[in-house]
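Researcher: Hi, I'm a grad student and pretty new to this. My advisor asked me to get structures for two proteins we've been looking at. I'm not sure of the right format, so I'll just paste the first sequence and hope you can take it from there.
Model: That works fine. Here's the first sequence with its C-alpha cells right after it:
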Amino acid sequence: MRHNFAAGERIAAWATIGKPMAAAILIGMGILASPVAMSGTAVAQDSGLAGMHAWTTVRGRTCMADHYHSGQGSGASKRGAMRAAIQAWRDFTGWEYGSRWASYRRAVSKGVSCGRAGSGWSCSVEARPCYVGRRRARR
C-alpha cells in the first residue's frame, strides 16, 4: 500500500507539528497508547506500529509486504539532494517503526526520482522498510 501523499509531504507535516503534537494526534486516533511512548525512535518499537502492516521475508530480511515510505530532499548537487531524501526517509521510518526499520540500505523495492530545481537538485525516494532479525515474517 502506498501512501496517498506526495513524496515528503507527510514527513514535512510531522516535522512541522513536532513530536508532542504528533503524539497527541496519534493518541486521539487510538494508535498510541500513551504519551510516554513518544521517546524518539522507541515510539514504534514500544507501541508496535510496525505490527499494523503485513510482513514478508526478502533475501533474509523481514520487510513490510506492501507498505512504502517516501522521503524528499534538495541540495546544491544531485548527490546532496539524494542524501537529504534518504535521510528524510530514514528519519520518518525510524520515528514511526523504530531504528531497526530505518536502514535505507536494507530497504527493498526502492524507487528514486531526481531533477533540477532552480540552481540545485531535488530528489524523492520510496522504499519498503526492512530489518535483519530473528523475528519471523507475519502473513
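Researcher: Oh nice, that was easy. Here's the second one.
Model: And its structure:
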Amino acid sequence: AQDVDAGIADGQINPGDMQTLVLKEAQLVENYLFIEDRHERLNAIMTHSAAGCHLPDQEREADLLVKGCSSQVWLEVKLVNEKLKIRFAADSAMVKGLVALLVDLYQGAAASEVETFKPTLLDQLELTRMLSQTRLNGLAQVEAAFLRAANI
C-alpha cells in the first residue's frame, strides 16, 4: 500500500486506475443517471472532457483518425505497463463528450480486463436510442481500438 500511496503522490498512478472496469462503469452511470431527462443527460455528457487526455492539434495524424465516425475523431491508444493510456480529440462537441465518457471508463484499465469486458454504459445511460447508427458505429470503432491495444 505504501508503494501505491507513493505512486499516487508523485503522479505515476491515477487512483481511478485501480478500479475494475465494472466498478468504473457503475460509477459513471451513477454520475449521470441522476439526471432524469435523457436530453439533459446527453447535454451534460457533451460538456464533459476527460482530464489530461487531450491530443494536441500538431499530433492529430491521419493514421489516428477513427474510421466509421460521423465526425473526425483522433485516437491514440497505447499499452503502458499492461494498462491502456488514451489520448484523443474530436471535432464535434457531442462526439467529444461521448468519447470522453468511454475514455474515462477505459483509461488505465488492465489489458486483461479490457479483453473480457462487455460494456453496457451507453445502454444504461439510455443513450443508444438517442444516437444515430453512424454515431453508434463510430463509438464501437473507438471501443474496438481499445480492445486492439489490449491484445497487443
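Researcher: Is there anything I should tell my advisor about the second?
Model: You could mention this: The helical segments are 2-9, 21-33, 38-46, 93-106, 111-116, 121-124, 133-150.
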